[in-house]
Specification:
The chain has 2 domains: about 140 residues, Lambda Exonuclease, Chain A (Alpha-Beta Complex), CATH 3.90.320.10; about 130 residues, no CATH class. It has about 300 residues and is α/β, with parallel strands linked by helices. It contains 9 helices and 6 strands; from the N terminus they run βαααααααβββαββα. It is about 55% helix and about 15% strand. It binds iron/sulfur cluster. Iron/sulfur cluster binds next to helix 2.
Length: about 300
Amino acid sequence: MISVSTIKSYMFCPLKLYFQSNIDGDVEEDYFISKTLKDLRIDIQDILHKNLRHIKKDMDENEIEKRLSIGINNQIKTTFDIIEEINEKNKEEDEEEKPKKEDEIEFIDKKDEKKEDEDGELNKLKKELINEINLNIKILSLKVAQSMKVLDKDGGEIQNLFFPTSMYNYLIRDIGLDLIGVIDKIEVEKGNYFPISLKSSNPPVNGVWDGDFMEAIANALLIEQEFNTYVTVAYVDYLKIASRRTVIIDTDARKSFFKVLTNVNKIIEKGEIPTVKTGLKKCENCEYKELCDNS
Ligand code: SF4
């Protein structure tokens, strides 16, 4: 069964998918961090939703922002403490498992340098996440203040405007499509289902990245099978700039998805080596660049 994340790897670079499926890459740690941060974003949505119920129409924007933020710092701190703790534990286990050569000299400074690098990366992630959340709270506060004024209602009465009925991290496995995926969020409005992909990456200037486009179509197809419905629109939320981009699920989009699915199958099932352009910009950040002739 093909996973939606496999299709995304193909869209990044078909050759990368070939390496991933034929050489066992160590991606466990990255996966753990990105999964934990995704869960954190969902928890924050929950907190904002709950806090919104206590906002009153006579509050000013600053007060609204403060009230919406209650509990969020704590949630961020707890999550990063857990990530640090598990990273430390994993490192200790790795060290214990490593066979020590008798004459091996341990360079204390180097070890410290490595730890500093890793701590630096984590701090950077934390800073970016806090900026993203602050921006989102500010925008939400302005929208809530304006909506309460225009509709003359308290926060509790307008919560559906900002938090429609949603399902998070919804796993769908479809035998007919031979596809499996976890959909970040599914919003349901008047019986219509909308797949939402939550992205912490930088967005393109217009539209969505090709990989995000394919993910949106895959999610739409999975929802159609799971809920016996028809999906015409999906969304990609680029959280860094609080921008929601629309993906139209029309016939052309569906055709292009199945074309990609056929190519992914050739790489995974038949082990075919894909041809890609050489010297791509994305090669600079690719973990396979050392063993790839194309970089
Ligand atoms: S180094 Fe470049 S061409 Fe090679 S797998 Fe990575 S992205 Fe693809």
